[in-house]
Amino acid sequence: MRREVKKPSGSGDASKPSTKARKTGSGRAGKEAVQTASQTACTPEQIAARGDRKPVNLALQGGGAHGAFGWGVLDRLLEDGRLAPDAVSATSAGAMNAVVMAIGISEGGYDGGRAKLTEFWSEVSRTARMWNPLGIGKWPGGGGQDSPWNSGFSLGHVMFDAVTRMWSPYQLNPFDINPLKDVLTKVVDFDRLRTCPHATRLFLSATNVRTSKIRVFENAEITPDAVMASACLPYLFKAVEIDGEHYWDGGFMGNPAIFPLIYRGASQDVIIVHINPIVRAELPKTAPEILDRMNEISFNSSLMREMRAIAFVTRLLEDEAIDDGRYKRMMIHAIRNDEVMGRFGADSKLDPSWEFLTQLRDAGRAAADEWLIENFDHVGNRTTVDLAATYL
């Protein structure tokens, strides 16, 4: 049974803080908001609008259509209303969730964030019907998670995979048509996102093709191209050019990147929303299973490395081996469901059907609900994930 929770003050509209909260230039609370904001990417208006909510940072993984799981997580957290997402680091589909949620909060508070996320994913499903490579169809009798004829043997995906191994997007898509960009520009007011002081602070990762380095875009730099760069799968789309450099999917170097939240986030709490399963109980043996697992390991690798570094510094702080004043102690949390997400192959990341997207959304909501019940009281106090067991 879901327990009753008391909504924090100002929970209806984060973009319209109380009269007391608006006075950021006077009083102790206002001075603290300005001081905190001066040390981070957050604005005084954003910090003052927290009300009684607990401030947190969010880290959103990418994963194509599997990003609908992240949609569900965000939907449930915003519905609950007891957390204030100060900053979000995100990649690929996570970056899309981040910008959509941020503009929604800017325009209509937490309810606006939820509405925008629903609008975005419904528009993705509607638009993608005529672009979906899986539309060729699955093998007869397929679809069951325990069946050898599941989505890993999708006829459409097999054909699509063969084509993209022979020809690049520069040959297959010379005009660089990307319907997702059209959806983003329809749903997101990027001018407002770049300038609104109440918009969630964003850090979107992309991979520089030339240098192999990560590029992190913040609010003032975020355009449709920046989001598409973060989500640019090189076998589907041409590299996205920004300021003379070309970018691929940010998942290659940060899925998502945690370091911007350490250096620029106002909260010490980071909630990681996992899309790609970390653990699989069964050994992959078929060709599709092996490829799926390779994909998952590859796109988790950068996060695993960062978490090892965080665990190392945390251990040094706990042992008082380093100066606590010079290093920021981070409290890490994780919302995930490897069992559910492990049922779907990599090809299903290209499945935009509304039935599939809402199935993942509901799984994300359930995972977030369980996490809130078990861990909300610990936010601001301690890490709730076993770093050693999960990441080391």
Please describe what this structure looks like.
The protein is an alpha/beta fold. Helix content is 45%, strand content 12%. It contains 15 helices and 8 strands. The chain has helices spanning 19-22, 27-38, 44-48, 67-80, 93-128, 155-166, 169-172, 179-187, 190-195, 224-230, 259-264, 287-318, 338-341, 354-375, 387-391; strands at residues 54-60, 83-90, 201-208, 214-218, 240-242, 245-249, 269-273, 331-335. Strands 1, 2, 3, 4, 5, 6, 7 and 8 form an 8-stranded mixed beta sheet that branches. Helix 4 (67-80) crosses helix 14, helix 5 (93-128) packs across helix 8 and helix 8 (179-187) packs across helix 10 (224-230). The longest helix is centred in the first third of the chain and has 36 residues, at 93-128. The protein is globular, with a radius of gyration of 21 Å. The model is unreliable at 1-7, 14-38 and 136-152 (pLDDT under 50).
Rg from Cα: 21 Å
Which stretches are low in confidence, meaning pLDDT under 50 for 5 or more residues running? 1-7, 14-38, 136-152
Shape: globular
Tell me the number of helical segments per DSSP (H or I, 4 or more residues long).
15
Which structural class is indicated by helix and strand composition? alpha/beta
Could you tell me the mean pLDDT? 84
Q: Give the proportion of residues in helices.
A: 40-55%
Number of E-type strands: 8
Q: Main sheet, how many strands, which sense, barrel?
A: 8 strands, mixed
| SSE order, one letter for each helix or strand | HHHEHEHHHHHEEHEEHEHEHHH
Residue share in β-strands? 5-15%
Q: What distance lies between the first and last C-alpha atoms, to the nearest angstrom?
A: 35 Å
